[in-house]
Amino acid sequence: MRKVKKKITSVGVIGLGFMGSAISAHIGKEGFTLTGFDIARERMDLLVERGGEAASSCREVAEKADVILTSLPSLTAFEDVIWGEKGILSSKRKGLIVMECSTLSVEDKRKAHDALQKTGTMLLDCPISGGIRAAEKDLVVYGSGEKETYERCLPIIHSFARANYYLGEFGNGMKMKALANLLVAIHIVSTAEAMVLGMKAGLDPELIYTVMNDSSGRSRMFEVRGARMVRDDYENPSMKVKVFQKDLKIIQRFASDLHCPTPLFSDTVQVYLGAMAMGFENKDTASVCAVLEEWAQLKRDKRKRRK
Questions:
Q1: Can you spell out the DSSP letters for the chain?
Q2: What are phi and psi of 190, to 5 degrees?
Q3: Among 19, 97, 171, 270, which has the minimal tally of Cβ within 10 Å of its Cβ?
Q4: Do residue 215 and residue 160 come from a single domain?
Q5: pTM for the structure as a whole
């Protein structure tokens, strides 16, 4: 007789940054018991304000939750969450499910999967697309790993995402996320290129934005990042240029390992490196527009229309 799995009622979120904070807010609204952890005290305070419980460590989250979502900015953070002194592994919790939602290499996620599996914990590879609109639940989950375990997590996924796709074996989620991020990287730079060309030709940036968003050339990145370019405002980033460097390197390695040429992407990477060199590392990725403005010798307040 098949054993009936216990209904998931408690959820943990480790990593309460831009994405994790928005996700946890949606999960809490759906009635799940919510526990979270982040190294930043102010993010923990916000979780408590929203009705969640702040844990003292990743191990405490693992001890209290049926399912944990990890949303982390770097490999170093991920390794500490899994293997740290008070990490998830130290809980030795059998039956725990971890949905790994960060953008990390398949190889690094596989190492964690194998280590956790030995203690009875199941890790799913579930990267998320659309982080900039996490507060609006405009997210898509790329799920991969053990199918039955993934399906048990669907009520949680439905609480914070508008769509989800089960993609098969572990690691396929990150492969799909690499494709999504490749397009995002290119589309942000192409948006900046069009904006700078238009402004250099004497067109008003707000007019460019309005018209192009009603054209066949529009994209989600034009809609979202283009608005920042119009305002020339790259503060309070939803994705910092320096954090995006990690994602770019993952794509480069992914393509290189497959001996697959990515000429457009390779050229795009240089613009983000330019942003780093110009001091935009802590600004939004839309700041590549400022990079191209500099390269084009465009001064918004002093530019002259071409004759």
A1: -PPPPPPP-EEEEE--SHHHHHHHHHHHHTT-EEEEE-S-HHHHHHHHHTT-EE-SSHHHHHHH-SEEEE--SSHHHHHHHHHSTTSSGGG--TT-EEEE-S---HHHHHHHHHHHHTTTPEEEE--EE-GGGGGGT--EEEEBS-HHHHHHTHHHHHHH-SEEEE-SSTTHHHHHHHHHHHHHHHHHHHHHHHHHHHHHTT--HHHHHHHHTTSTT--HHHHHHHHHHHHT---S-SSBHHHHHHHHHHHHHHHHHTT---HHHHHHHHHHHHHHHTT-TTSBGGGHHHHHHHHTT--TTT-----
A2: -65, -35
A3: 270
A4: no
A5: 0.91
CATH at residue 50: 3.40.50.720
Nearest partner of 127 among 156, 107, 103, 151, judged by Cα: 103
* Whole-number pLDDT of residue 27: 94
Please give the C-alpha separations between residue 192 and each of 186, 206, 230, 238, 248, in angstroms, as whole numbers.
10, 13, 10, 17, 18
Question: Could you report the per-residue pLDDT of 269-301, keeping only the tens digit for each?
Answer: 999 999 999 999 999 999 999 999 999 999 986
Token pair for 22: 């928005």
Q: Do 239 and 146 belong to one domain?
A: no
